[in-house]
Structures are given as C-alpha cells and as structure tokens.
Amino acid sequence: MKPTRAPVPRAPRRRLRAAALAAALLLTAATATGAASAAPAPAEPPAPAAPADRGAPDRGAPARPPSGVVDLAVEFTVDNVNRTRGRCSADGEEYTVRGHLTAPEEVLAADAPAVALLVHGTNTGEWIWRLDVEGRNYVHELAARGHASVTIDRLGYGSSDIPEGFASCSGAHADIAHQVVERLRAGDYTVEGGDPPSFDTVVLGGHSSGALVAESVAASFGGVDGLLLTGWAAVGITDDTNRRFLTAYRTCLEGGEEHEAPGDPRGYVHFDPTLEDFTEGGLGPHADPAVVAEVEGLWGRNPCGVMVSEPMAILYDLDLVGEIDVPVHLVFGAHDVLRQGVEGYPGLFTSSPEVTETTLTDAGHFVTVDAGAELLYDTAAGWMDRHAPTS
After folding, report:
1. Which pLDDT band, with edges at 50, 70 and 90, does 295 fall under?
2. What is the CATH number for 250?
3. What domain range includes position 189?
4. Among 48, 183, 230, 378, which is 20 to 30 Å from 369 by CA?
5. Is residue 55 part of a domain?
C-alpha cells in the first residue's frame, strides 16, 4: 500500500483529546490499586556489575540460531479492525504483518506443537525479542531451551505495512494479535520455504505495551493458553513516562514529526524525545556495552494513533484484567524508569489459576536484552514447560 500525505482529520483530534484526559487519570488509577514507590526486589540481590561504558563501540558477536533451530520469515494477512471491549477506531483495511518463526526442528515435527506469539511495545519493534547480540536474543535462547516463538513487527513498525499513523489504535493492534493467534492455530499464514505449521498450544507474550495488547486479547477474545508479560504493569506510571508521553502527544496533535524521507506516511512520532532518553529509559546502568551499541541504532518512530490511544486502553485494561482466566507470568526490571511501584499488579489477576513473577535486579525496561536476562530466559522456559509443552 502506497502512503499518501493527508492532514490529521478531526476524528483523530477528538481521540487525542480523549487520550489526554485518560493520561491525566492514569496516576489516579495507579494510586487506586495500591502501587507503592519502589519496584519489587528479591531478598539479598547479587552485587551489581560495574556500569557499562555507554560510549563503547563494541557491538559484540552477531546472534546465530542454535544448532537444530530454524529461523524463518513469516507473513500474516490481517484486517485493521477493533472488536475488543475497548473503544478506539481503525481504518478497516487489509494489511500484511511480517515477522519470524524461530523453533527447534523437533518442535515443528511434533504431533502437538506449542508456540509463543511475542508482541513488542510502543517504542521498540520485533528486535526486542531478536537482538543481534549473542546471548541476548530471546527467541534463540528459548529455542535452545526447547521452545518455539513467533515474533512480529506490529502494524506501522519495521518490516510490516506502514499505513498513515492515525490509521490504527491500541485496540486494533490487539485484534490483529488475536487474528495472528487464530492463523497460527489453523496454519493459515505464509512461511519461508514451505508449508506453515499449525500449533495446538499458543501462549501470548508481550513486552511493555505489547503486554497491554496481550491482556486485551485475553480479556476480549480468549483463545490463548497463557500470558508471559515483560516490562509491563498497568500501574506504577512514573514522571519519566508522563514526560515522554505528553511530549509525543503534543507532537501528534500537530500531525506528527516531519517526514524522514519524501513520501513517508504522516502521523508518526518518537516516544522517547532523544536518543539518550531511549537508551537510558530502556536499559539499566549495568547493560552490556554490546547491547547498548546495538540498541542505539534501533531508536524508531511510532504511529500516533496507537500511542495516544494507549492511556484509555490502560483504563479499560484495569477494569478487565480480573477476568483473565489463564496462567500469567510477569517479569519486572528493578531499574525500570518507566514503571515503578508495581508490587500490587500481580494481585489484579484475580481469575487466573496461577500468577507468578520474576524481578531482574540489574535490568531496566528492556528486560529481554538487559543485564541479568539469563534469569528471564530460564524462568520463561520453565513457565513454557509447565503451560505450553510440545507433545
């Protein structure tokens, strides 16, 4: 689909005003859930490593799939509609969402394979699960532990179709994720070099606001076997989060940032105003220099329609999260500058048969790639062993 230039219509401006109101209510919502002022931390944490030199040029060894693991490009045809229980509008057009299937060969050959569909957050992309640094590639690490993953760039990001920035919203992204879950179960998608496998068990993983998408899917549609949520809570929003959001909101109110190249679609904005905000808001003080160097090259823009609809989506989420009835695992970073005081959040999943949590003591917001991520890989694989085994 070829992008065209257009002014921001009145309907998106009304949604922006509603989003501003929702944003103003978020701190009240967080307080109402009993959020405190510090992130959870396990007893007797290990001594922190020396802070990384953020100016280090070392990009590290590229990530390579483990032996016996396939890494294949995939495509899903989806409709940009919102049938969730949270109100926001989308253009209703058909688009292509692209990503990768990363899996041990024996999982794909099994009679009843399982997979995790992994959804990134607002200010990242598929790369948050596939960082090109050895030992910090989530899907490679989970494959080495016996589990299959599908990662996607959300609509408006990376390799997926890039419509105008106000063409979609948070609820539509949840609907799209639901459509991808259904296609994974049915084997109704395109995979590089062969026939697409169908999966008997599908869990949904989400990082940051990708976890909001995952929760919206579970609450509005069901059809998933569990939720694995990283770097996320619908409470504990910090001043750093509000500063970033309100800066980006004002830019979106004017139609988004200037075009990066002729013909670029309108309505896109950086959530983090500067590269320094992006790295310091994403990574803790002990991040590997190779990770820092790689992440610095991945600072990207975000579709305004999705970003500004998220505050209202969070309010809907707080109302519905108690209805989610599948196992849930949450992963927090103790140095996450975007979410603090999240201790009460696991207790909101009152209908879930099991709610567990892990805190990475040296990690910031990008827990999938940050210091101590090995604990995340181990606990996520153990959780998959229990709730999404391949048989």
Report:
1. very high
2. 3.40.50.1820
3. 10-35+63-386
4. 183
5. no
